[in-house]
């Protein structure tokens, strides 16, 4: 071994924690290679404009049309999932665990703070991305970060841009864990991310908590100086592994991107026998340990959340709603292009030439010179097979819609047959049970822990007084409150209830309408609160921007109308009883 290679290997030698974390990433990432190949094939179908980029490209058809049924199902599921999760502004609530936490003021402060932070941090936009992961990959991952972004002007004055917790998506391709663990919470996690040197330098300069990133900047400078003094061949000989997506290690170090691997969980040192629990370890360049600290959360668990669409037995990598439909999409494209080729042959069939026929151009009115015993015939095709293919394509597409848990009624397509409004509601609720269960699962398994993770991050990092806006539903006015750390510290949980509330609304409203059309309604009317019923209709119909519903507003308006009518009547009587002015009578009559 040359001195150059030995020196390069000494500089690039990974620190102990960096070595085993890198090996774990490679091991578990390679083990899911088949699954990643399935994800790739699904993506090709979702974003294909023709079959040339899909597995249908091997078929010997002249036409290459793709019918984007998978894409339509994906968009249909996403829009309905998102609408169900956020049906209105009141999609989250506070559930207290103690008497003190249940106080009205405490509940108001916590819900107002979380509503403000989810709105300002674009929580709904991030959840939209996670719902796409839920559909495309069958798995959605996210974490919570605390941001303190300020704007500094020319004079040095700083204006807060956003201060608070934020939900951040983690791509399913950038996280590995032990899929055979009893639960996602109990297994280690390794999250991979890439960033630029400039972004790392900015983070290290502006955020004191990110000062540890200076280590990777110093290491990168040392490697680049070393690389400049040796041949590229020496460097390639010394480094035998590659960084995902960057080619050789030489190309990686000479570029502007930096790979970070973050380990969450328990670590065991095989040499010393030491066991460290609940650790957060960050490494860069597969060699440098940037930090090794205790998990910063109160409970000591990783602030990473996961939800799966269809869980497998003894495997945490779940299936997605589209996984089983890729083969059916293949069949649809196969039939569509087979049908198109058959129609081309029917409209412009090949010719059978018998005997001696002079050369000619096939077309309308073209003369053909044929010798004795010669002939030209079309090889006609039967159109029945084309009709059969059309029917089969439609049947497959209808089945795909049902298999994905997205009933056609979700798109506004009504099933055949005459039905009453109540029957339609019953059938719609029954057909949407799979859909409702999946979005409720997303709420319970992901949104709820993520929201409580945001609230915990706010408590850990809260160091000032914030002003938040609260809408008073009773008065229809806006109020502003100053929130402190004490105001958002209580025993309880934030619960997202959008999807469950959305499903319940339709059933309850239909029940009220059905009940109001029966004699029983007259018996319960004396015991029914008109104000509460009005609030229910206002919440169900989501008619909040028109100021239609207010307590007893109709009584006040009727009194005002009656007063104006009485005044107009009195004015009329006075006018009739007042004698006419002689000067006002025309003299020419």
Written description of the protein model:
This protein is of the alpha+beta class and 589 residues long. Among the domains are: 1-32 and 179-301, no CATH class; 50-67 and 323-356 and 373-403, no CATH class. It is built from 18 helices and 16 strands. A hairpin with a 5-residue loop joins strand 2 (139-152) and strand 3 (158-170). The chain is flat, with a radius of gyration of 35 Å. The mean pLDDT is 79.
The Cα radius of gyration reads 35 Å
Secondary structure tally: strands: 16
Strand content range: 15-25%
Trace the largest sheet across and list its strands: 4-5-6-7-8
Helix content: 40-55%
List low-pLDDT spans: none
The biggest beta sheet is recorded as:
5 strands, antiparallel
